[in-house]
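Renewal narrative, Specific Aim 1. Our central claim is that a sequence can be written position by position from structural information alone. The example that follows is taken directly from our test logs and has not been curated for this report. It begins with the structure tokens describing the chain, in the order in which they were read.
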């Protein structure tokens, strides 16, 4: 006879308590996804460069229109606090200083830069974002030199996928702006 053991999922409150009492150290690189703590992969040079460049591009394009958050948490219900590479969130930015991290309703779109994290981003993070009804997620696939844009979340999945490659431009949904794939990929 096989016995099924139930998992004990952590809440965000318990996750923070673990940090307060020293179970999680300040320099631990972890994320809470669906009640489980995952160790984040070290950030490689190209990944870091791409996140920095994208952040700068978005700040220039969307200054005064959105808050650009770089590798900071967003809060999804009670069991997930992922740290997307970039979150483009609604103003006012002081909300995120004084009150809370952005929630799904605060987010215009998220960006994950993926190389060694591609499988994790596709299988763990994308479903969480879709279940939370985050309208749009970009996956900058450094391995394939392309950008996947996921839209129309429904039932824990995104119904629409558009892939952008060298020479193409990606519209910034909700803003009368766009970014060149070549600029994002550092070409």
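The sequence written for that structure reads:
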């Amino acid at each position: 006879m096989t016995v099924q053991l139930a998992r004990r999922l952590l809440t965000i409150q318990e996750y923070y308590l673990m940090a307060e009492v020293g179970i999680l150290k300040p320099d631990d690189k972890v994320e809470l996804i669906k009640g489980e703590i995952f160790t984040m992969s070290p950030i490689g040079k190209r990944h870091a460069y791409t996140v920095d460049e994208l952040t700068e591009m978005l700040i220039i394009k969307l200054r005064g229109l959105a808050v650009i958050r770089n590798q900071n948490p967003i809060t999804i219900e009670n069991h997930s606090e992922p740290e997307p590479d970039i979150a483009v969130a609604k103003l006012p930015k002081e909300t995120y200083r004084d009150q809370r991290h952005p929630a799904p309703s605060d987010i215009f779109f998220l960006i994950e830069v993926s190389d060694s994290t591609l499988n994790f981003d596709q299988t763990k993070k994308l479903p969480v974002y879709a279940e939370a009804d985050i309208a749009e997620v970009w996956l900058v696939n450094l391995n394939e030199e392309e950008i996947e844009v996921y839209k129309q979340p429904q039932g824990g999945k995104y119904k629409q996928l558009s892939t952008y490659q060298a020479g193409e431009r990606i519209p910034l949904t909700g803003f009368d702006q766009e970014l060149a794939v070549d600029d994002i990929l550092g070409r």
